[in-house]
TrEMBL record, chain A:
Keywords: Cell membrane, Electron transport, Heme, Iron, Membrane, Metal-binding, Repeat, Signal, Transport. The keyword Cell membrane applies. Its main location: membrane. It is found in: Cell membrane. InterPro entries: Cyt_c-like_dom (IPR009056), Cyt_c-like_dom_sf (IPR036909), Cyt_C_IC (IPR008168), Cytochrome_c-type_DH (IPR051459), Membr-bd_ADH_cyt_c (IPR014353). Residues 1-24 form the signal peptide. Residues 39-142, 184-292, 305-395 form the Cytochrome c domain. This is Cytochrome c. It comes from Rhodanobacter caeni.
TrEMBL record, chain C:
Belongs to the GMC oxidoreductase family. Keywords: FAD, Flavoprotein, Oxidoreductase. It comes from Rhodanobacter caeni. Residues 232-344 form the Glucose-methanol-choline oxidoreductase N-terminal domain. PANTHER family: LONG-CHAIN-ALCOHOL OXIDASE (PTHR46056). The keyword Oxidoreductase applies. This is GMC family oxidoreductase.
Length: 418, 249, 586
């Protein structure tokens, strides 16, 4: 499967494990730990997939885990680092404690602070054993000699020690602590969602410094110019209407009875969540379904002329697959009526899908990768605004209208990513 | 997709391959290829046929096509004719493009003539056939009636078209029937093809017969036996192809 | 000097239906497979997106997704006493170019041949006697039986998600299906398509005259479908753009919508596009293929070594390659000896246009949305008093109502002018047409060989087609047309325009792309090119796929049988790869 432009996770600030040219130069014996026992390596691979590490730590057409992938952030461009076991340019000389400190505290082997584009604010929740297994797996990868690229950030962010301030303000190191009032299954789900899965990195609202709102961590957020919808219990734009099975199906296959994965989430499914075990998917579902619904704001009713324009465009462009009434086609094309993805607080994902087209992730179980063509050339900004407004308000959907300038801005951003 | 792209057959993902420029450029290239590039959206009215400067036709040829196609598909109580439907422009662009140049045809000699069953065996492209045939028909009209085809009255024009259809005019190397068949076939195309090709203006041809255009979902309609289908006419370029062709949408 | 590529286990010439099936089957068996395709790669999105593909002028009229005769064509004549002339542009048939082959542009009419079709000589002699067979007719058994092919028909139908109503499951007749079909082990994977107004008219009329109508089998998905490979199809939306078009909705079975999502991911499969194979190479014994030579898009000649070669191109291209490569003995019509190019056949079609009052909305349709009768196909009726061999189905296909090519006008309508306009206005929504689709047998005088005069872009002689309809076929087609007319007459308030297929075969009007033969399969090397496993008699590591192996043509669209034969041959190839050598001793 081809990697799409756009990463599975986006954070306000660059990518972690930035050795940034500061590779330890001490010669002598490698203290690289030898690959762990088989079970540990296997479990490590499972966690590495669950964390989707490869997506960020592999450049387009680059060697796996050798880093070098540019991650545009609002603050500048950061490059992911080499986490292959190469002793000089990778993490071959790191021992278990070095690696745990990076994962748990966001501090590299040589003591410099990492940028939180590396999701240590989530990975800090991981148990020591899990971190050990991740390292054990990474140690089995082919060492690649590839020096890291220095981030392109403005002062003062370019000064690593500035991250100490950020950490002090927004970061608390600490392993996951089970909630004794909840089931083991719920706790397992919470551990995965809040830890290695780092879901709120995308699905959470970020403050001006790029830190996720700790009080409402899964209320929806922007990622790579698209909006990652709320995973809380909202009936309209959250997971309120999803069953546990819907969540299991979605994460396991990229599709369920309600919708199909699109955009960056399609990549997350195909590279990460589809490899999770059924019990873990179920645990995630149990945890997510326990999240309460936030209060819902009223939305403005769209102008009748806009709705007419949107309805005409829907008939001319969309109805073949998504069908009359937005019912979609179970087993093939996603439903638009009564869909949380369509009614998400921000319409950016919907607009981006129309502009660029999209494909359902192709998996071994679902190899087809049913695709939608791009309409960005055929429809102008007014058209797409009317169409998305219509889709968000027709058939009982109830989400805010979309303006032409929303479409224009997003079109521009997608044209010049970063 | 270049051969190099596909050497290992694994580059079927299209993410990196620029597939289309703009829809309009794409259509233009298909329709007209280089000579007409940029002219599809031209709105200058210099007194030429149908408000557009012809790309392929000379003014005399355009006048012939205007007149002949309007006899083939006249304006009448059922609606506009060939001129109202923009067929001269359609033919002009087709003849200026790949079709006019017979780009996909096998055009290697020798060129013996054959039986009807063996089909087209002329060494001329459609563009050359139109050019030569129009010149010869007009010469015939001048000789017989003192003016070119376009200036004759309708009844006389019809007579001449019937003569062409029956192969009764001498057009030199080009059998009159061959020219007539091509002209009539292309005229129907201009009347019934998607308006994106500059003919079938305002859906003239589709409105006449009741074809709604390239719609894409009749799941709920196909079993509505005997009921007329009501959705508005649509083209590959939307509901207002004229605006699209003017570059306004 | 040709560049030499790294050897592969198996090279496939062409990348359409048969190549996709062979590649899928052999890669599963662990073999390294390479397909060489002369056209381009294309897929549902973006190539068949609905804002692109629903363009009658570009695809159906200007024939944009078909082979371009500019580069290679064939020459044609009705009989050996004429000079064959090049087919300058496409007409009577439309071979495809590009990944997916004709599987991209077909209608999806997915039939099984009748059991007797495969044993037609034996069957005819038994029922009507040897003398019933015209002297010039090369009537041949196939060397494979319907019962042997049944599991492979089943595999192809389940691969494609065929929609239909079974007529005979395990010998038990099923209501609503084709009562004449061979026994199938289970029903179709999907229920039949919705009916349209015109197919309803046909159904009622056909019943009224005592025939047995049924919904024609359609590789257009009546419901969302997931095939045994896990590949998904969407429900057909009856948009009316199947034949000559790719499907924008994943609804029509094609290599793209049934196999490629799985195949293209495999490490032991690869393909190259814009590679035109010009030779199958053999070693100095002439008994072993060493690979193929092709010309790439830049005009470079490249040698591709392979341990096994499979010809998966369109029927006459396979034959052309065999002739150019001097594999097998070319057919000599003067002596009747030789086999390559022998047994060329086609189909004979006719129609009865129907004009009535009810609005039919012909533009709502699907490529294989049809109601048919099989009462006059194969030997489903007594040929004794009729004196001809063969038959065909009669069907009302509601493939679409594309305005340039799919309008029907009464016989007396003016050909142009206001009268033409009025006829168009009055009839487009209410006219329909009943088609007959008849078999064509093979004859001594119908064959393929190399043209002495004209050459293709690669400097090779063009293929020469010598073909005409024979009295047997005209008699059969006229009879079939008469039966179709009876159905038309039973439609209330209707007038008809009967369009018989008169006179010589013409390469000008479109008839059908069901060209067959030239590399016939069989049990006797003196009358066939390949054995019953589609393996060359002369070069055992060469196999030939597709309709080129039909010894004569039956009265159905061939794709279902081509698919079944391909699965059948793939099984044989797996045996061959384990133990190379002739699979049948001559």
């Amino acid at each position: 499967m081809n990697a799409r432009p756009g990463l599975a996770i986006t954070l306000a600030l660059g990518v972690g494990l930035c050795a940034a040219g500061a590779v330890a130069a001490n010669a002598g014996m490698s203290d690289r730990t030898s690959p762990g026992p088989h079970a540990s390596v296997q479990h490590g691979r499972y966690l590495v997939r669950a964390g989707d590490c490869m997506a960020c730590h592999t450049a387009s057409n680059g060697a796996p885990y050798a880093g070098g992938r540019a991650v545009p952030t609002p603050f500048g461009t950061i490059y992911s680092t080499n986490i292959t076991p190469d002793p000089d340019t990778g993490i071959g000389r790191w021992d278990g404690d070095d690696f745990y400190r990076a994962m748990h505290e966001g501090i590299a082997r040589d003591g410099h602070r990492l940028y939180p584009a590396f999701p240590y604010p989530w990975f800090t929740k991981l148990s020591r054993d899990d971190v050990r297994d991740i390292k054990a797996y990474l140690d089995t990868r082919t060492p690649v000699r590839q020096r890291d690229i220095a981030p392109k950030l403005p002062w003062p962010l370019s000064v690593r020690s500035a991250m100490a301030v950020w950490d002090a303000m927004y970061f608390d190191a600490g392993s996951y602590r089970a909630n004794p009032e909840k089931s083991a299954q719920w706790n397992r789900g919470a551990y995965l969602v809040r830890g290695v899965g780092h879901c709120s990195a995308c699905h959470g609202d970020k403050n001006f410094a790029g830190a996720v709102d700790a009080d409402h961590p899964l209320g929806g957020g922007f990622a790579e110019h698209v909006f990652a919808p709320a995973l809380t219990g909202g009936q309209r734009d959250g997971l309120g209407q999803w069953s546990e099975q819907d969540i299991v199906d979605y994460l396991g296959t990229g599709r369920n009875a309600i919708t199909t994965a699109a955009g960056p989430m399609a990549e997350v499914v195909s590279q990460s969540t589809r490899y999770l075990s059924k019990p873990d998917l179920r645990a995630i579902a149990v945890y997510l379904k326990s999240l309460p619904a936030p209060p819902q704001d009223d939305v403005a009713t769209a102008d009748a002329a806009v709705m007419r324009h949107g309805a005409a465009l829907y008939l001319d462009n969309c109805e073949g697959c998504h069908r009359r009434g937005g019912t979609g086609e179970a087993g093939a094309f996603p439903r638009l009526r009564d869909s949380s993805a369509i009614q998400a607080e921000h319409p950016d994902t919907l607009i981006a899908t129309i502009l660029r087209g999209d494909a359902v992730p192709a998996t071994d179980a679902d190899p087809t990768g049913l695709a939608m063509p791009a309409f960005g050339k055929r429809l102008d900004d007014d058209d797409i605004a009317a169409l998305t407004t219509y889709i968000r308000q027709a058939w009982g959907n109830h989400a805010a209208p979309v303006s032409s300038s929303d479409v224009k801005d997003l079109r521009e951003k997608l044209r010049h990513p970063g | 997709m270049s051969v190099r792209d596909s050497q290992d057959g694994k580059h079927h993902g299209r993410g990196d391959t620029p597939r289309r420029t703009s829809r309009r450029n794409f259509l233009r290239s298909v329709l007209t290829a280089t000579p007409a590039l940029g002219l599809l959206g031209c709105t200058s009215n210099d007194g030429s046929v149908q408000g557009r400067a012809p790309v392929f036709f000379t003014p005399q040829e355009a006048a012939f096509i205007d007149a002949a196609t309007q006899r083939l598909i006249p304006a009448d109580t059922l609606g506009g004719g060939a001129n109202e439907a923009g067929i001269t422009t359609f033919l002009d662009l087709q003849l200026a493009g790949a079709y006019g140049r017979a780009e996909r045809w096998y055009m290697q000699g020798p060129w013996p003539s054959g039986s009807d069953q063996q089909g087209f065996q002329l060494k001329y492209t459609p563009a050359q056939i139109y050019r030569d045939a129009i010149k010869r028909v007009d010469a015939h009209c001048r000789q017989q009636h003192g003016k070119p085809f376009a200036q004759l009255d309708g009844a006389r024009q019809d007579e001449l078209l019937h003569a062409l259809e029956q192969g009764k005019l001498d057009l030199g190397d080009i059998p009159a029937k061959t020219f007539f068949t091509m002209l009539w076939q292309n005229t129907q195309e201009g009347y019934l093809a998607d308006p994106a090709y500059s003919g079938n203006r305002d859906f003239a041809g589709w409105k006449l017969i009741g074809f709604p255009g390239p719609r894409y979902n009749y799941v709920e309609d196909i079993e509505q036996f005997g009921k007329p289908y009501q959705a508005p006419f649509v083209s590959l370029v939307g509901r207002d192809p004229s605006a699209y062709l003017r570059g306004e949408s | 000097m040709a560049r030499r590529e790294r050897p592969v286990d198996v090279v496939l010439v062409g990348f359409g239906w048969t190549a996709a099936i062979i590649a899928q089957e052999l890669t599963e068996a662990g073999v390294q497979v390479l397909a060489l395709e002369r056209g381009e790669f294309r897929d549902t999105v973006p190539d068949f997106a609905t804002d692109t593909i629903q363009d009658e002028l570009r695809y159906a009229v200007r024939k944009q997704i078909f082979e371009s005769p500019e580069r290679e064509t064939l020459t044609f004549r009705n009989s050996a006493d004429q000079t064959a002339l090049p087919m300058r542009h496409l007409g009577s048939f439309m071979p495809a170019a590009g990944v997916g082959g004709a599987g991209v542009h077909w209608n999806g009419q997915c039939w099984r041949f009748l059991p007797q079709d495969f044993e037609i000589r034996t069957h005819t002699e038994q029922r009507y006697g040897k003398k019933f067979i015209p002297e010039q007719m090369n009537l041949q058994d196939w060397g494979v039986t319907y019962d042997e092919l049944e599991p492979h028909y089943d595999r192809f139908e389940y691969l494609c998600g065929v929609s239909g109503t079974a007529g005979n499951i395990g010998g038990v007749k099923q209501p609503g299906g084709n009562p004449f079909e061979g026994a199938r082990k289970r029903g179709y994977p999907l229920p039949p398509l919705k009916r349209s107004a015109s197919t309803m008219l046909f159904d009622k009329a056909a019943r009224e005259v005592g025939f047995d109508p049924f919904p024609c089998p359609a590789a257009n998905a009546s419901k969302p479908y997931r095939n045994p490979l896990g590949v998904q199809m969407g429900q057909c939306t009856y948009c009316g753009y199947c034949e000559w078009f790719g499907c924008g909705n994943y609804s029509k079975a094609s290599p793209q919508t049934t196999i490629l999502p799985v195949l293209l991911k495999k490490d032991n499969f690869s393909y190259r596009t814009r590679c035109n194979v010009t030779r199958v190479n053999t070693d100095n014994t002439g008994k072993r293929a060493t690979g193929v030579t092709y010309v790439d898009v830049d005009g470079n000649e490249i040698e591709q070594p392979a341990a096994m070669v499979v010809l998966c191109a369109f029927a006459q291209h396979n034959v052309h390659l065999l002739l150019l490569s001097r594999i097998g003995t070319p057919y000599d019509p003067a002596t009747g000896r030789g086999v390559v190019g022998r047994n060329y056949a086609y189909q004979i079609t006719s129609s009865v246009d129907v004009f009535q009052k009810e609005i039919l909305n012909p533009f709502m349709g699907a490529g294989a949305l049809g109601q048919g009768v099989d009462n006059f196909n194969g030997d489903n009726f007594d040929h004794g008093p009729l004196g001809f061999i063969g038959g065909g189905y009669i069907a009302l296909w509601n493939t679409g109502g594309r305005p340039i090519l799919q309008h029907h006008l009464p016989a007396d309508a003016p050909t142009w002018g206001s009268g033409w306009k009025k006829a168009m206005h009055d009839n487009y929504l209410t006219a329909t047409s009943i088609a007959t689709h008849g078999s064509v047998m093979s004859y001594r005088s119908n064959y393929l060989d190399l043209d002495p005069t004209w050459r293709d872009d690669y400097g090779n002689p063009l293929l020469r087609l010598t073909f005409d309809f024979q009295p047997n076929e005209h008699a059969m087609s006229d009879y079939l047309t008469d039966q179709a007319t009876k159905i038309a007459q039973a439609i209330p308030g209707a007038t008809h325009h009967v369009k018989k297929r008169d006179g010589h075969y013409s390469i000008v009007p479109y008839q059908t792309t069901h060209n067959t033969g030239g590399a016939a399969m069989g049990t006797d090397p003196t009358t066939s090119v390949v054995n019953r496993y589609l393996q060359s008699w002369d070069v055992p590591n060469l196999f030939v796929m597709g309709a080129s192996v039909f010894p004569q043509n039956a009265g159905y669209n061939p794709t279902g049988t081509v698919g079944a034969l391909t699965f059948w041959a793939a099984e044989a190839m797996k045996r061959y790869l384990k133990n190379p050598g002739p699979l049948v001793t001559a």
